[in-house]
Amino acid sequence: MSAHTAQTELKLSGKLILEGDMHCETGLHVGAGKGSLEIGGADNPVVKDAHGRPYVPGSSLRGRIRALLEQATGMAVPSELVYISKRKGQEVRIHQSDRPDDEICVLFGRSPGRMEKVSGGDIDSNYATPARLSVFDAPLILDSITSQMRETLDDELTEVKSENAIDRITSQANPRTLERVPAGARFRIRMVLDVLCAEDSTLPALLIQGLRLLEDDALGGGGSRGSGRVSFGDLKLTWRGSDYYAAGAPEKEIASGADVAGLQGKVQEIGEFLFAA
Questions:
Q1: d(CA 273, CA 268)
Q2: For the chain, which residues make up each domain, given as ranges?
Q3: What pTM was estimated for this model as a whole?
Q4: Is the pLDDT of residue 163 over 90?
């Protein structure tokens, strides 16, 4: 838990800008839904932009980081979870509390109102927290799909992985196909962390922890079957204080060309820097 209280005053001190590359160590499938199924296409296509290029939605990346942090901090238990959807077969449960020092809710934000707790009862809170973290859609770096890779792909930018589900009684195979961005592809990520008070100086460490957890987990679908392993590199962390926006003051580079482990080694330095700022 953090040092935030209900009396903490919020005023923009500045923004931490994190940019870098996300590498696909294995094929990556972030699904577009069955609504975009094409004749002759894969059963499960990847999400693409208006130009037909795969990308990773910021909501997918942000949601996965949040889920991993909820698990790591012990918040993914019934007493800490609420329903945001109770539709049968499509239930969605996330962590939310009305505690002002709850770092997950501080980082990702929360809205006031009544929510049903998974363990029973309701949360009825007027306490709102503006989200500190914004995660933007990550476009594919086209040059990362080399001409050599394209020779073996099923489409210009993607591959199709075929799988079989086997009936345990009859041994009948049920084939399915999964469209994936191939291993070796890279996406350009951008995240912005608003610093609204001195107590926010602990939040960069929480974000970096989430990135490191993701590197040993999976993003998107099919993670338990080999898809979705990613890593982060060439990371640049920049501070833009409030005077950058108000008076054109220069930004300050905190780290450049780093990996997640390198950023984690700077956590204390980053926190002290923000507190001084």
A1: 9
A2: 14-276
A3: 0.91
A4: no
